[in-house]
Amino acid sequence: MNIGIDKINFFTPNAYVDLVDVANARGIDPNKFTIGIGQNEMAQQPRTQDAYTMAANAAYPLMDEIEKEKIDLIIFGTESASDASKSGAVILQNLLGIQKYCRCYEIKQACYGATAGLMTAISHIHQHPESRVLVVGSDIARYGLATGGEVTQGAGAIAMIISANPSIMTFDEKTVAYSEDIYDFWRPNYSSTAFVDGKFSNEAYIRFFNETFHGYCEKYGTSLDDFGALLFHMPYTKMGLKALRSVLEEGSEETQERLTNHYEKAAMYTRRIGNLYTGSLYLSLISLLANDENISTEDTIGLFSYGSGAVGEFFTAKLVPGYEKHIHKEDYEALLNRRVRFTVEQYEDLFNQTWLEEDGCETYQCDFDDAPFQLEKICDHRRYYKGGK
Predict the structure, then answer these.
(1) What residue numbers bound the domain in which 306 lies?
(2) Could you give the number of structural domains in the chain?
(3) Where do the Hydroxymethylglutaryl-coenzyme A synthase C-terminal domain residues begin and end (predicted)?
């Protein structure tokens, strides 16, 4: 049975800060950000957007009445949840008007959460071939102002519908996962920003890629030359490139050129948005399919997912003939190009605002937020949303 991605989309809030502006404000050479880190812009979410509204806004264009009736499993990958008990998946089910006979839950394992959801969705479709599964990854990446990780922040969501006989991509279900208990990146419950051991985190990411990639090649008898493209979780675009370069010499010159060219296309949207955490790998997939005319349905595409703490997984897929009809580049470009450019002062002011964490009510408004779903208020420790069904 062919199982894979039938529909896919991403959402990012309609505000950003230019990283040249941030570099100048910090007294740093802008090339350190734009070349050394490989980032140009960083998404900013207004107070009317949280992890749940971003997920709904990513999934909304995929919905029609058939989807609302046939989806019977919603898996929400995030490390930006606002509730330690209630799942964002049930919020998403309600916002999108998906039928009630549906299993809904949330997954947390740093940036690996959406991939964990994808693997579970594939198993579900094997057991229930007529089912359709909604998998989302939605996050707000925060490290702190003027910190080493500041330039790798971001916000946004991806949404995928997984089904049998998909229209975009099929997974061959050959996969290798690797896990260790490490502290490369973590966020205790009492902290609104993450902690990261930068050098160790970079080393762990590349090591986990090599463990899973070479483990895959050994297990399934493949080599670098067998891959048409490699996709990576991208906390920032230079990070994935470092991982790619760690194995490039294992391939021919033609392979090295091909994989590098595809990587540049896959990195285009991350350069403009920043780190999506759970959605990052799949944003790179959308970027590749929207911007690379040289990718082929004959190519085997390798995907590396990584979640700090840590879990890595390498798996493979192939595109379905005609996939390009289901990739809407014009919509993606319109979403990015209509965003409001924040000043550094606006960005810092927004960063320092906190959510209501006591009795009472707080209402949120944003004149330039035109997304279909928005956070309206927090009242008596409950979140209320507008937009819908």
Answers:
(1) 170-321
(2) 2
(3) 255-353
Enumerate the known binding-site residues for (3S)-3-hydroxy-3-methylglutaryl-CoA.
Answer: 29, 143, 242, 275
The answer on 164 and 260 residing in a single domain is no
Strand partners, 132: 71
Last residue of some domain: 321, 351, 376? Answer: 321
Sign of the dihedral through C-alpha 6, 372, 289, 233: negative
Q: The domain that contains 203 carries what CATH number?
A: 3.40.47.10
Q: Are residues 126 and 182 in the same domain?
A: no
The C-alpha atoms of residue 6 and residue 15 are separated, in whole angstroms, by 29
* 312 and 366 housed in the same domain: no
Same domain, yes or no, for 7 and 152?
yes
| Annotated binding-site members for substrate | 148
Peptide bond into 310 cis (omega under 30): yes
Closest CA to 151 of 270, 329, 312: 270
Rounded distance, CA 309 to CA 298, Å? 35
Quick one: 303 and 194 in the same domain?
yes
Shared domain for 221 and 254, answered yes or no, is yes
Active site residues: 79, 111, 233
Q: Please report, to the nearest 10 degrees, the dihedral formed by the alpha carbons of residues 349, 351, 356, 358 taken in order.
A: -100
Q: Is the Cβ–Cβ distance between 320 and 326 less than 8 Å?
A: no
Q: What secondary structure does DSSP assign to 258-322, as a single string?
A: HHHHHHHHHTHHHHHH---GGGHHHHHHHHHHHH-TT--TTS-EEEEEEETTTEEEEEEEEEPTT
Residue 389 has pLDDT above 80, yes or no: no
Question: Residue 225 and residue 247: Cα distance in Å, rounded?
Answer: 11
Query: Tens of pLDDT along 254-294?
Result: 999 999 999 999 999 999 999 999 999 999 999 999 999 99
Residues 79 and 154 grouped into a single domain:
yes
Whether the full predicted model's pTM is greater than 0.90, yes or no, is yes
| Long-range pairs, 379-388, Cβ under 8 A, ≥24 | 383/50, 383/52, 383/82, 383/91, 385/52, 385/53, 385/56, 385/91, 385/95, 387/53, 387/56, 387/95, 388/95, 388/97
Q: What is the pLDDT of residues 75-124, one digit of tens each?
A: 999 999 999 999 999 999 999 999 999 999 999 999 999 999 999 999 99
Asked whether residue 212 falls in the same domain as residue 138, the answer is no
**Buried-exposed string 356-377: b where 16+ CB fall within 10 A, e elsewhere:** beeeeeeebebeebebebbbbe
Calpha distance 301→286 (Å, rounded):
13
